[in-house]
Write a structure and sequence with these properties.
Two copies of one chain form a homodimer. Chain A is 19% helix and 30% strand. By secondary structure, chain A is α/β, with parallel strands linked by helices. Chain A has four domains: 163 residues, Molybdenum Cofactor Biosythetic Enzyme, Chain A (3-Layer(aba) Sandwich); 58 residues, Molybdopterin biosynthesis moea protein, domain 2 (Alpha-Beta Complex); 88 residues, Molybdopterin biosynthesis moea protein, domain 3 (Molybdopterin biosynthesis moeA protein, domain 3), CATH 2.170.190; 71 residues, Beta Barrel (Beta-clip). In chain A, strand 24 and strand 25 form a beta hairpin. In chain A, helix 5 crosses helix 6.
């Protein structure tokens, strides 16, 4: 099958054609899921001031050193310091100040006695045990020192990373945002779901499916549709290329004839700005594939086959890695396990099959579903895994162990 | 430690207080991530008509039965049927029709000969091998039969499920949408990230962090903040309860005194509509917890501690299950593995520790990070796992195998 590319070769072609998008300063909510384009550095220590880790009393440790249950030390309460209090309080020797968790440690004090070690008094407090020097004090910088790298370049920002940035005072960060992906479904046969149907036409599912898959992968998706006219399709692609970091088309890329409209649009005489390679890839489903750059901005365009199962499997294999690359990350493959087949599976000669299957909860066995046609969405919707049958095999038997990709 | 509830007891309290939200008819894009409130049933077969699975020629199989390389059968091409063509075409015996993938099979034809088996002619075509009856034909209903359950009640809708619904003509579905979660951070000490800071105050991170965690778990989050005033906080909670399926507060729930403003707001005399239980939970971080119902709509409210590490760990343990329950699903626990500790870890007596750690790529070993304080976001931001140290242990040694929760 020398006329086909391997899955790896096509993925390499896609990744070679995609560079990271320009970074932008993003507010903390916009930055969720974004990837840092430069290290975030601590401009202040974290915590930024010495503070109490408990509700209690700020004291001179030496004052309460002799305290016991039998002979408690009694100190006047000279002040009360709630969290958020910005006054410069000083605790004189022989006195104490009531202090709350997170509150600024007053000058003079070198320990906090938790309220549980006292009688909780408000005008005076009785201490029944010593509070060693430094007790219940969070020191400035003990979490992060000034100048330390909070998060290195290339960090994807989840809740904990957003929290660290916020707590360190960063209101915005230089990052590559979630990729904007425009999905364009082509085909004269397509009708809108919910509308009546006549024989010969089908309800359009690819734009909904691929947009959902893009969002599931952390991208921002828009849905579009075009009739089977190469000029219309090319115009639509050029228009969308200005609004998206990645274009994904579905349909119109078979190896047949004049009805391969996406191929015609992107390789015809009118397509001066397009440079797209169309190839057979040695896989099933999803043999006809294409990738290149199109439009004035030379936006990456991934042309997926129109059969819905082919389109979604292709998105998982090529589209998700492309989205990672747009954020400057090494592509994350789908999680892979090895599991024993519960029954015989077959595969066409020379092509790698990605059969829709159900991986058991213990991940020990995997069962291929009935209905493996490229148009058969029923099985796809029940699948949680893809069973990989290598190019050089035409069958695998029950009990054989296969590579299995977990679906997102 | 009889004065504390277990993590399981508190989680059970939360889940007992939460019922599924009312389902609504959602369009296919709004339905992404939603959960079906009723089975979706096929009202038409899928495919809805017999169609060609390849580009080729619709023929009477008997006409091409004698075809060989040496003695090809030649038939006039009487018509051409692209995908989307809705005409009622009939192929007479002794003729053929050019047909594209997905196009309606014409009456009379009982097989499709792929273009690869022919000379690809347009006025007449030469067939060099037989096309058996039924070849390359997708029969109506072979994916899904009329009346079949497309997706059962309780299905979470990802890309493949959305595709199946769309392809079956469902423009909308009865489903429970992604939960709407209002996050309310309390504390007079809080300043907005990006603004200048004075000693005694800290940059607010919890609302950003928890909103990001809610979105990561598939919810819709809004962020809010209130000063440390029980009346203000109660009014805010009652207002937000009308706009959200779940309220999450952070801060103001320690076991101490008058500064526990969330506790005061929800258990004071003014809180006629609130019924919230505040308890110590035998865990670290995150001992002070609360859950109940508040506001005119009796909206579930989860009151998390204010230390950011405590708040996020608590959200993972209690908030994510609550979100599943709002969609009518059995809560999905964080994925758990068993891994060997690379060093000694300690834990307070009687409390279950959730230490921030790094699980190795092979999931065989796990390393506790330096900086396990409840305020130490640095370690949290580097962690990919929580190491669980049971209540009855105060230490585990290097080489011992621990339960480890993978972080989302």
């Amino acid at each position: 099958m020398t006329d086909m590319d391997s899955v790896e070769a096509h993925r390499a072609r896609v990744l070679a054609g995609i560079g990271p998008v320009e970074p932008a300063w993003l507010g903390l909510e916009a930055a969720e899921g974004a990837v840092l384009a430069a290290a975030a550095v601590a401009t202040v220590p974290l915590p930024s001031f010495d503070n109490s880790s408990m509700d209690g009393y700020a004291v001179h440790a030496s004052d309460v050193a002799p305290a016991t249950d039998e002979a408690p030390v009694i100190l006047p309460v000279a002040d009360e310091i709630p969290a958020g209090d910005t006054r410069a309080v000083t605790v004189a020797p022989g006195t104490c100040a009531r202090i709350m968790t997170g509150a600024l440690l007053p000058a003079g004090a070198d320990a906090v006695a938790p309220v549980e070690w006292t009688d909780g008094g408000t005008s005076q407090a009785s201490f029944s045990q010593p509070a060693p020097k430094g007790n219940a004090i969070r020191r400035a910088g003990e979490d992060v020192a000034v100048g330390a790298v909070l998060l290195p370049e290339g960090t994807r920002l989840g809740p904990a990373q957003i929290a660290l940035l916020a707590a360190s005072g960063h209101g915005s960060v230089l990052a590559r945002a979630a990729p904007r992906v425009a999905v364009l479904a082509t085909g004269n046969e397509l009708s809108e779901p919910g509308s009546p149907l006549v024989p010969g036409r089908i309800w359009e599912s690819n734009s909904y499916m691929l947009a959902a898959a893009v969002r599931q992968a952390g991208g921002v998706a828009t849905r579009h549709r075009a009739e089977d006219d190469p000029e219309v399709i090319l115009a639509r692609i050029e228009e969308l290329s200005a609004q998206a970091d990645l274009l994904i088309t579905s349909g119109g890329v078979s190896m047949g004839g004049e009805h391969d409209v996406v191929k015609a649009a992107l390789s015809g005489a009118g397509a001066a700005t397009a440079e797209v390679t169309f190839r057979k890839v040695a896989m099933q489903p999803g043999m006809p594939q294409g990738f290149g750059l199109a439009g004035p901005d030379r936006t990456p365009v991934l042309t997926l086959p129109g059969n819905p199962v082919s389109a979604l499997v292709s998105f998982w294999l090529f589209g998700r890695p492309a989205m990672d690359a747009l954020q400057g990350l090494a592509p994350r493959p789908l999680p892979s396990v090895r599991a024993a087949l519960t029954g015989r599976v077959t595969s066409p000669v020379g092509r790698r099959s990605y059969l829709r299957g159900v991986l058991a909860p213990d991940a020990a066995t995997v069962t291929a579903l009935t209905g493996q046609g490229s148009h058969q969405l029923g099985a796809l919707a029940r699948a949680n895994a893809l069973i990989v049958v290598p190019e050089d095999l035409t069958a695998m038997e029950a009990g054989e162990v296969a590579d299995v990709l977990s679906l997102p």
